[in-house]
Design the sequence.
């Protein structure tokens, strides 16, 4: 992959559909994402008949700043949609990417984003096979927004959904929380603190595949992004009409994340993660799943953090380090805007 | 479908992932798009194994104004991705929709858009099965941007691509050109002319299905959106390494479109269409295809407008009404920004 730095800035003509658009697509997107689907030059990508049930997921990415410790909007957009598809138990197969560019964005900056997407896509083994480019006037966008859609195939016998949590199930968390949120915050201009924390942004599909190989009967999976682990557990509790009991001392939080959150009055339970998953699993399979997860680079700190209980009010309750109990509610309002 | 007008405006909290986001999704998106996939509440939608090759296409929509004669950003977003998938010969099956909302957008305006999308999706028989909502600060977006992705299934024996045009093929156009571009222009504030023209925005998949039923061996299909018929023909010529000869007198242009274009110094050949298609078909099948197209409401004015010729410079040349010839080049720069 030849590295060049494109000159100039995004102009309205790059979104015209005419010659200037075609040049941008060739020099940037086809050049870096390089595959037969894009080279075919159609407005669609065509695949052979998939070998199973198909799953589809989409996410727009509007994170600011575009570049942060441990990632950028490009790698995040690839990981984000891969993870949403992986949370169904599926093997992600293909990605689409639609760009909304703001007039005046330096092309060199766009190129950095595209190079990063290309790398994330190649590392994950999930090609970007079709896309779109639009341009809006200065002040009508914010540099670049990227919407990715992923499709994948669910293996036979796998039946994972947010509504499948059962009383008695164990709640497994794949690692420490809050790292993406703190990394993005610390990258924002005007914020007066720095940490050594980098985003945990990562594609989780190989971790999920290893888990499913060990135990196809996982009940629910979800990646705790916006709203954090607290919101994800509340969503799952509501979907399954169950309660959740979690144990604060079992939830890993890096000292730097804890420090940054204390400084800013934020709660790590509500901070976004981009490379972690929550799994709701049969109690008698939890130990084996943990063993498998800990052998995977993205699951080394996996732990059982709680269990599913009967509760038709669908509450999430945490036993604190001091031995008390507190209700962990849905995120109200917003903790951090534009974190993904 | 109960009609309500939501109060208030989009706030940053609507993009938080927390309780406010959940309420917006329930009251607006699930309420109007209403289907089992959305009600399942997962970050993905799951389907049975498709009955053939799968095709995927994505488009971001940034049109301004949001509402125009004959449509709005919502119906356009549904038609746009359905059409891109249909241009492979596929039957569109499912849509995803990702929204980027600007803080301060009246919720009643968003509701109008969502109601329109719901209607377009239902009319087309293609449900919106998964989605995403993000919110950006005032001045970092423009009301609402919508990225739709469609997936569909290609029937056996159909093999349509931009690179399949062959010397001797006929070029078929499904109707009059330039209506979407003129309708949007005339809806823009500050423009001093009005026309009776409405956008041709429509879902073309049933027209395509009728054409394929009559003749599976269609070589190429494309909808001439941004950049118009001129750009589409140049793209197809380049992909297939052929030339195109078209006849101006065969191309339908409504008097109002012609009038508006003359007034504004624009060329209808470069104006966007959102409910037309160009088909490249074997010469000996053109008459039968025309007959089938003319029986469909969206193909009543279908006509053969030219033919594919040998030309390794891939030029598109038009015989004018006056009997001369002119080269129809790619759109250079931009004719109209944010037309889709």
Sequence:
């Amino acid at each position: 992959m030849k590295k060049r730095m494109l000159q100039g800035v995004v102009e309205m003509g790059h979104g015209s559909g005419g010659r200037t658009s075609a040049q941008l697509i060739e020099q940037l997107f086809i050049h870096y994402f390089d595959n037969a689907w894009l080279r075919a030059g159609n407005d669609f990508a065509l695949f052979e008949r998939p070998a199973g049930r198909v799953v589809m997921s989409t996410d727009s990415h509007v994170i600011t700043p575009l570049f942060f410790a441990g990632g950028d909007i490009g790698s995040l957009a690839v990981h984000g949609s891969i993870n949403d598809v992986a949370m169904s138990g599926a093997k992600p197969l293909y990605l689409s990417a639609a760009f909304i560019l703001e007039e005046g964005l330096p092309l060199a900056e766009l190129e950095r984003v595209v190079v990063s997407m290309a790398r994330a896509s190649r590392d994950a083994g999930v090609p970007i096979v079709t896309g779109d480019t639009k341009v809006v006037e200065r002040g009508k966008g914010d540099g670049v927004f990227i919407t990715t859609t992923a499709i994948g195939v669910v293996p036979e016998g796998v039946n994972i959904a947010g509504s499948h949590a059962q009383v008695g199930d164990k709640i497994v968390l794949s690692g420490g929380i809050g790292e993406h949120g703190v990394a993005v915050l610390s990258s924002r201009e005007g914020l007066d603190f720095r940490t050594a924390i980098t985003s945990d942004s990562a594609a989780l599909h190989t971790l999920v595949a290893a888990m499913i190989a060990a135990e196809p009967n996982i009940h629910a999976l979800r990646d705790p992004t916006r709203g954090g682990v607290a919101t994800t557990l509340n969503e799952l509790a509501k979907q399954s009409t169950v309660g959740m009991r979690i144990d604060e001392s079992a939830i890993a939080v890096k000292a730097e994340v804890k420090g940054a959150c204390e400084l800013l009055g934020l709660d790590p339970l509500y901070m976004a993660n981009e490379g972690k998953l929550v799994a709701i699993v049969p109690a008698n399979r939890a130990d084996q799943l943990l063993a498998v997860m800990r052998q995977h680079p993205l699951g080394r700190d996996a732990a059982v953090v709680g269990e599913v209980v009967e509760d038709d009010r669908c509450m999430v309750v945490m036993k604190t380090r001091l031995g008390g109990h507190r209700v962990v509610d849905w995120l109200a309002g917003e903790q951090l805007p534009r974190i993904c």
Summary: Chain A is about 30% helix and 25% strand.
